[in-house]
Each structure stands twice: as C-alpha cells, then as structure tokens.
Write a structure and sequence with these properties.
binds zinc ion, mainly alpha, 279 residues
Length: 279
C-alpha cells in the first residue's frame, strides 16, 4: 500500500466515523476503483486457473460473439459510468447445467452456458447482464468487504504491516466467499439499475425478471445460488424481485409483460437463432 492509499483510507475512516450511528454503513467503501479492478483481475486469474470448476466455454464461437454484442448494448447506456475505470469483460463458462451468472469487482462478468440455454429471449439475457453490471458499477463487493474487513484491514494498512493485503483479500474472496453473499439491498439496487440501463437500450426494460418468471413457471425458484454472489441469489426471494420489478414498470408507465410475451422488444427469434439453435 502506498502512503497515498493509506491517507485516503484514513480520510475515509474519519468521514465514515462521522456517520456511524446515523446510517447503516452499507455505502461505505474503503477501496478505490483501482482496488476493485485489481481484485477482479486477481480473482479472474484464479478462475482461469481452475477449469475443473469453471470450464471455459468451447462451443460455437458465434454464441460468444452474440453475447458480447448484447453486453455492449447494455454498456452503451450513459448510466454506466465506470467504463473508463473498469475493464468490462464478459466470459462464458462451459457448464451447461448451471443456471447462473456472477460479477467480480471491476467489471468482470461471467455467464454460465446453462443460463444461456435456459433463457428464451435476448431481453432476458440483457436484463441479467445489466444486473451484473450494476453490481460492478455500485461496487457492492468491495462495500461488503469494507464491512467485513473494516477494522483489521485498516489497522494493518495504516500501520503499513500488510502491503500485500489486497492480494490476501483476493485469495480469500476466491476461497471463502460466503461473506460476499449479496445483501437484499444490493440485489434490489442491482435490479433497479438493470431497469435503468435497459431503459436506454432497445430491450424491454423489465428483462431482469424474465429469468425468475420462467423459473417460477417451471417450479425451480427454490434452487438458491451459493458461493460467489450470483444472479440467482436466494435473497430477496425471486418472487419478490418479480413483484418489485413489475411495480417499477408500472410506476414508469411501462406495460407489464411476462417472459412468455411476444413483443418486438424481447428479441426472441434473434435469441433462438443465435443462441438456442447453436447450443
Ligand atoms: Zn445480484
């Protein structure tokens, strides 16, 4: 840790201390944007080195290209503000059984092949991706790590005893990630910002809920995600997330449709041609 970083942490702690007792500390983040980026790179390297658990996608490369295009459509929203600071990147995991997606700090997003096969529209995929982008943009992982490591990390950093602290934290993030489970507030905020980003795209803005609706209709909503904070988080309840998204749509005067709708802004035939027919 450099002297500058230590001073910044110290300043943040004093600022944070002023608010203790009058606010929950959910928004305090002692890490910098650059720390988010570095952590994400470290964990991404761990993931790459662990093909048994995170097998690389080796199917039709056209599918990966198509997903990249959907990702870029979401990132094009002017509401995504950290495009300079973060190296946004989407990676497919070649596991056709897992219905999930997750984000690392600093813009690294992972989508399982199983999720691609399960979804039935481009808008649904864009909604999930936008939700994961929101976790990166709002820096939820390092916020939670601030809450978790708070005092001990600060003491080590301020005393200069642990220059490799960030590396240690990255290792822990990978090995023991239970503490990183998204809070209900984080999930709600990521769904909210999924709507906000999607609103700037060609897609139906409520796409984030389509996955849950399909899971609900298939009787699968009880399968909770574990480990690295994932899209399929058990809290808040997926049914609540559908209801909250519907409320958001109504408040904004958007017609509420479900995943089985056939609107133009769902891009179902594009999705079928480019993903479902190729996996
Ligand atoms: Zn999430």
């Amino acid at each position: 840790m450099t002297r500058a970083i230590r001073w910044r942490l110290l300043a943040t702690v004093f600022a944070a201390a002023l608010f203790v007792g009058c606010d929950d500390s959910g928004d305090i983040n002692l890490f910098s944007e650059a720390d988010d980026a570095k952590l994400g790179e470290d964990v991404a390297a761990e993931i790459e080195a662990d093909p048994a658990n995170y097998p690389p996608y080796d199917g039709d490369p056209a599918v990966a290209t198509y997903v990249e295009g959907v990702f870029q459509n979401v990132l094009a929203s002017p509401e995504v503000e950290r495009k300079e600071a973060f190296d946004y990147e989407i990676t497919l995991i070649g596991d056709a059984e897992t219905l999930n997606a997750f984000a690392l700090p600093g813009g690294k997003i992972y989508v399982y092949e199983g999720l691609l096969k399960y979804l039935d529209s481009e808008a649904a995929l864009a909604g999930v991706i936008a939700h994961e982008v929101a976790h990166c943009e709002k820096r939820h992982a390092t916020q939670r790590m601030t809450a978790y490591y708070g005092v001990s990390a600060l003491l080590s950093l301020l005393l200069g005893n642990s220059p490799s602290m960030l590396t240690e934290i990255a290792a822990n993030l990978f090995v023991n990630v239970a503490f990183l489970a998204n809070s209900r507030a984080d999930e709600d905020q990521a769904d909210e910002y999924s709507y906000i980003y999607m609103n700037d795209t060609k897609y139906y803005p409520g796409g984030v809920k389509f996955f849950f609706e399909k899971m609900r209709d298939d009787g699968l909503v009880d399968e909770g995600g574990q480990g690295i904070a994932t899209f399929l988080s058990t809290h808040p309840d997926p049914i609540d997330r559908i209801a909250t998204t519907n409320e958001r749509l109504r408040e904004n005067g958007v017609t509420v449709v479900e995943h089985d709708a056939t609107g133009n802004n769902l891009y179902k035939s594009d999705y079928k041609t480019n993903v479902l027919d190729k996996l």
